Amino acid sequence: MPEERSFDPKPIRLAGRLVRLEPLTIEHLEGLSVGAADPDIFRWFAVPMNTPARIREWVEAGLSDQASGQAVPFATIEQSSGTVVGSTRFGSIDRANLRVEIGWTWIMRPWQRTGINREAKYLMLRHAFETWGVRRVELKTNANNAQSRTAMLRLGAVEEGTLRKHMIMADGSPRDSVYFSILDTEWPWVKERLEARA
Predict the structure, then answer these.
(1) Is the pTM of this model over 0.90?
(2) What is the pLDDT of residue 121?
(3) How many angstroms separate the CA atoms of 47 and 49, rounded?
(4) Which residues of 109-147 are buried (b: 16+ CB within 10 A; e: fewer)?
């Protein structure tokens, strides 16, 4: 049984061949704000971030959640250029039940389908299972986001079900959320699969 004391969610840096995940800071705001120009990036988010002010609010909320121990947010950096290309985070941290969610993820269009997001997920999953010793990693997405749902299945996550009218979108419409998970007992197989695709 993993020791609970190993589950210590603090800012960390994770690096791979394509991507570097740095602890999110307000200094990343300028690079992240470039994403506000693309209306499609946040199409499925409950609160769209299509202005620099909205992205600032999102960054500040992530840092506030980090300060209260509820999240570990990252800036997603392309290794080769050092360019800020998006963001992701650990959230919904439940230390008592050794559970964490990976989400709040977005990548700017030129870096989508480049392997950056897959490698970032691999680094986060490896840290969650092998350093923190969690038993469960959750992922969720808008039920209408077919691209994200497919990506989660390709990652090796198991679709668990749909929470109907789970969130309210910015326009007032209801959002159904589909939940996925990877368990500690499944991680060795998922890890092998991800490493084979690297």
Answers:
(1) yes
(2) 97
(3) 6
(4) eebeeeebbbbbbbbbbbbbbeebbbbbbbbbbbbebee
